[in-house]
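RESIDUES AND SHAPES:
===
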Amino acid sequence: MRISHGAGHIKLMTDTSSLAPGEPRPPGMLSRRHLLHEGQVVPAAIVYGHARDVEELALFCPEALSVAEVVGDPCVDRITAGMTRRDHYRRALGIEPGERLLVVTSTWGPTSTFGRLDALLPHLLGQLPGPGYRVAMLLHPNVYAGHGTWQVRSWLAACRGRGIAVVPPTADWQAPLIAADWIIGDHGSLTSYGTLTAAAILLTAGPRREVSASSPAAMLAAAAPVISPGYELTGQLEYAARLHQPGQYAQVAALLSSVPGEFHQRMRSVLYRVLGLGEPACPPDVAPPPLPPPLRRWEIPADSGVPL
């Protein structure tokens, strides 16, 4: 079985050598190059989060339609299940009454938020007034895999002693996202998943030519305000909070899963069918994200020179 990861299919295929002249670039995980081996479909099943993905598959790799299944998105279902526990997550993270949590999310690569932190972090750290703001960073695991934890920590030296929490890639990222008052993010999946939460969203400038126009990230880029380095940050945060309304990004959230709440049941059915077994005679459990440790555990202390 093959399952895609993330909020829809965001990044377009970068190597276009196998495409015919004028042929549109497919999202990477919907292309023949990624789904076929020597012209043949290998998996017994390929599962997708949204019916729209299968429609695109028909355009870019119709050979795989016979094994395509729409099962939904587990992150959508777990975040939705966890929203009723938002206050519990905030208390577990150590967010005091009156404090507000800003979560910075980043995918990987030079056009990501992390790729531009040399400009964003000083802007962020220099303008947040006093202890009433808490900041947590959620970095894509590929950032750590590509550079190593020690190097990532070295690049974040400006955070030392400033109360910035860097959530490690082994930790559950969903609880901090649910607990956020604001999310500053790029074209990565976590920013799109943020549309399921109560947070106001601000975007960093992104590489629109590399993002699929039908992805949730593209729709969010057309709707959410963009951070401007020419204006004071707290003013932009308050402006975004004033504009934010419940359900503001419902259309973006609807692109994440066409069968919300059904992932566990549908995925289990596909797995048992592939295995040739009967399903258990009980509904699958959809557990909300677990309570996280306090943010202080992940803060970079003033004398830190060692990995998390």
About this structure: Residues 263-275 form the longest helix (13 residues). The beta strands are 2-3, 36-37, 40-41, 46-48, 68-70, 100-106, 133-139, 164-167, 182-185, 200-203.
